[in-house]
Amino acid sequence: MDAVLVTAAIFGLLLCGCSVSGVEGIGVNYGMIGNNLPSPDKVIALYRANNITDIRLFHPDTTVLAALRGSGLGVVLGTLNEDLARLATDASFAASWVQSYVQPFAGAVRFRYINAGNEVIPGDEAASVLPAMRNLQSALRAAGLGVPVTTVVATSVLGSSYPPSQGAFSEAALPTVAPIVSFLASSGTPLLVNAGGQGLEVVVSETGWPSGGGGAGASVENAAAYSNNLVRHVGRGTPRRPGKAVETYIFAMFNENQKPEGVEQNFGLFHPDMSAVYHVDFSA
């Protein structure tokens, strides 16, 4: 997790310039870095039982995708960062990826986005992001699938973030991000980030607060307040776009015991036995 840590909160941004069917509300990231987590079918049932309408997967898992069939959940499906270079340089690998992880499930799984890489900008793999996105988009179109392709950047790419309406990418990140923005913005949706493209939609792909682990402010009370206030707030929109819900994904569904010790193991809404760490009212 390389997203910016501001006190104890984490944030990531998913950039999408594609027109999609409706704006979703609050989703939850489904991380699987644990050896005591429930089976995917039980996890998907838990999402539905708690009125969580959307799920983000950091990497493809056919067992999870099979469990999502017929669930109605909106799905953000990510690629592994280590696959980016090959996705960028080998169109046949991108086609195989789509044939393995998207095409067999497309009729019964509601894919919202395919996400090329997670927080690799800036970094050594950043140059692979845009060509990987292009190859994935071409493979999806060849398969007759209109799923948008996006990427996730950490808020560390922002040179200015306050006030939010004046947010802009840093000079260091701009050479990599600007062509991606142009690629994403080609559909002409409203510009939400000042990055030189028209029609860029911003989705908050990761935000959360730890319930324990020893970090400053890490407590069940603070985590509950953060998540519940977030759910109530995002539906109201932003000062620039009041009333337009901000699609947002809470990090994360479970406490994961194979992450580094400390706060990283304590971002879950649920314990591995599926009991709640704290209650979040997703109907708010």
Automatic annotation (TrEMBL):
MF term (GO), any:
hydrolase activity, hydrolyzing O-glycosyl compounds
| Key words, A-Z | Glycosidase, Hydrolase, Signal
> InterPro entries of this UniProt entry?
GH, Glyco_hydro_17, Glyco_hydro_17_plant
Q: Tell me the leader sequence span.
A: 1-25
Tell me the Gene Ontology biological-process terms attached to this UniProt entry.
Answer: carbohydrate metabolic process
The superkingdom listed in its UniProt entry is: Eukaryota
- Keyword Plastid tagged: no
> Which family is this protein grouped under?
Belongs to the glycosyl hydrolase 17 family.
Against PANTHER family, the record matches this protein to: GLUCAN ENDO-1,3-BETA-GLUCOSIDASE BG1-RELATED-RELATED
The protein's name = Glucan endo-1,3-beta-D-glucosidase
